[in-house]
Amino acid sequence: MHRDEPGAKMGMWLFLFSELLLFGGLFLVYAVYFSRYRTDFISAGKHLDTLLGTLNTAVLLTSSLLVAMAVSALRSGFTRKAAILLILTVFCAGGFLAVKYVEWGGKISHGLYPNGPELLKLPKGEIMFFNLYYLVTGLHGLHVVIGALLLSGILGGILIGRVGKNEAIWLENSGLYWHLVDLIWVYVFPLFYLVT
User: Which SS3 state, helix, strand or coil, does residue 122 take?
Assistant: First the structure.
């Protein structure tokens, strides 16, 4: 079997760069509208639950630590430990999505969703804030789902014996993707939840 770990890593880094361009563009759009509607953005940000955002930040940072530990364990040949750490990581991903579901559910029930009746009563800047909020957090949530599926696939490979020390590059690349998802949230959290 041909193995090209440097090539696999390079390909993953190029993919991650394209993801950074996507979210970087969204952050740039946020910055432009924030400069235009600063007061409205600050007012709209008060509708978000900082405690839930903080909880999600802690969950994702913990999951990043867990996946890094899983990579190290697999590279060292401790497949059982790597599997347990991946289970915990996927559990964290589920926790993040559950908190986001509760948060979105609360906003939607109050009519604060794109083209929602209550949202359309707000000033133009607040409408833009919530549209960006749903776009960015929804896109980020999709990346969390994809990352959890990737890590679950690696976990399955470990459990059936197809992924071990010699195939750790699969987990390393999936872990890099997961770290990017966490890094993006580190920017999303202050932009939307701590806006002042």
Answer: coil
Is the CB of residue 137 less than 8 Å from the CB of residue 57?
no
Residues 6+ apart with CB under 8 A from 96: 56, 59, 60, 63, 144
Q: Which residue has the tokens 């639950």?
A: 49
pLDDT tens readout for residues 75-124: 999 999 999 999 999 999 999 999 999 999 999 999 999 999 999 999 99
Q: What is the tens place of the pLDDT at every residue in 41-87? A: 999 999 999 999 999 999 999 999 999 999 999 999 999 999 999 99
Please state, in angstroms and rounded to a whole number, the distance separating the CA atoms of residues 195 and 172. 34
- CATH superfamily ID and name for 5-193: Cytochrome c oxidase, subunit III, four-helix bundle (1.20.120.80)
Task: Provide the residue type at 13 as one letter.
Answer: W
